[in-house]
Amino acid sequence: MNGVPRAELIATERLRLEPLSVHHAREMVPVLAGTAIYRHIGGTAPTAQELAARYAGQSVGASPDGREAWLNWIIREQGAAVGFVQATVAVGAPCPTAYVAWVVGEDFQGRGIATEAARALLGWLLPRTGGPVAAYIAPGNLASTGVARKLGLAGSGQLDEDGEELWRSATPAG
């Protein structure tokens, strides 16, 4: 990957992945308001102000030192925000690992949205990076491990400092 890729609109038959912007904050508050999703990802439901601050930083598209591309999208189904997907990729690395994540609001889970959105993200991302894909998933998060398996990722047994397992592909997944 030679430069910093910028998030672009991605569409599937059912979903639109819209590049993240600060204006999404108010709309995402009810999507992220449930408590069950935080059982696995930690934290609590954010306020509109907290999301606006977070999105202001994320939507810049790169880390302050320019070493990472921060790529974030809001997932839309029939025009309504239902969750988000994101990728963090090292800039300038010859075959960088893309660290991906997905979150779908409680009211929209169980319908394949996370899998469809993550596949669309990888379909857009892999031609731009050429590298392997990885995700950190909390033990016991069966929904996310199911998505990871459908993306061709496998658990490595390696845990990070938060106790999340590294799931990865040796080759690009799709």
TrEMBL record:
One cellular-component annotation, GO: cytoplasm
GO molecular function: protein N-terminal-serine acetyltransferase activity; protein-N-terminal-alanine acetyltransferase activity
Domain N-acetyltransferase, chain residue ranges per copy: 36-171
Pfam family, one: Acetyltransf_3
PROSITE patterns given in the database record: GNAT
InterPro entries found in the cross-reference section: Acyl_CoA_acyltransferase, GNAT_dom, Ribosomal_N-acetyltransferase
Name recorded for this polypeptide: GNAT family N-acetyltransferase
Originating organism: Arthrobacter zhangbolii
